Amino acid sequence: MNESRKEVLIDVQELSKHFVCGERRVEVLRKVSLQIDSGEQVALVGASGAGKTTLMHILGGLDRPSSGTVYYQQQDILALKGPALDTFRNRTIGFVFQFHQLLPEFTALENVMMPALIAGRGFGRARGPAEAILQEVGLGKRLEHKPGELSGGEQQRVAIARALVMEPQLLLADEPTGNLDSGTSDEIYRLLQQLHRDRGLTMIVVTHSQSLADRMGRTLQMVDGDIVA
Ligand SMILES: Nc1ncnc2c1ncn2[C@@H]1O[C@H](COP(=O)(O)OP(=O)(O)OP(=O)(O)O)[C@@H](O)[C@H]1O
Question: How far is residue 140's CA from residue 22's CA, in Å, rounded to a whole number?
Fold first, then answer.
């Protein structure tokens, strides 16, 4: 993409979050500001407890900050509530977590169809895109398998397919390979890079692995609730 034509997808200003535990106030995010351009691939690294998951949850509309602003393009997502927030999340953001959180009783195909069914698309319209994205992540021959019949890496591929089936602009992945061996982690990262290249997908990926972070376009380091680099 031409540098001069890059557009800011996410603009975060002075985001703070604290929790109150009994008498104690725990400051988890301390006036974090950051911008992510459309099409960027960003790694978020930092020690355990630095605030990475909390930041991802706020960026994804799953949690609210104590203060600060989060804009997607020109939209103030903290002003969204209830069904409007649900719709925004469903259409704009795909999530992948460390533990795939697939529904064990449903097949890979049904799991991937779920976001479209929740969005009110009929079975017929949900099936085609779900099949196509499962092909794209290399699971065209595993459509009818349930999560328990798939390897850890395959389960995470299904979770990635489910995150992308609504064609979100942004993928948020919180330690997507934290539970996998290094060879399988490597495959998942290659898949994320392929999806980034092929779809121009913007992604923010939390990882503890420096070598995996090095493959992303930019690394943001969190220390004690703030971004230092
Ligand atoms: N609901 C909560 N109530 C109180 N404290 C919380 C709550 N959620 C998170 N915290 C605290 O916020 C801090 C940051 O947590 P967070 O999960 O964002 O860190 P992290 O950088 O993602 O860590 P990890 O790499 O271990 O997942 C931690 O000290 C945690 O104990």
Answer: 51
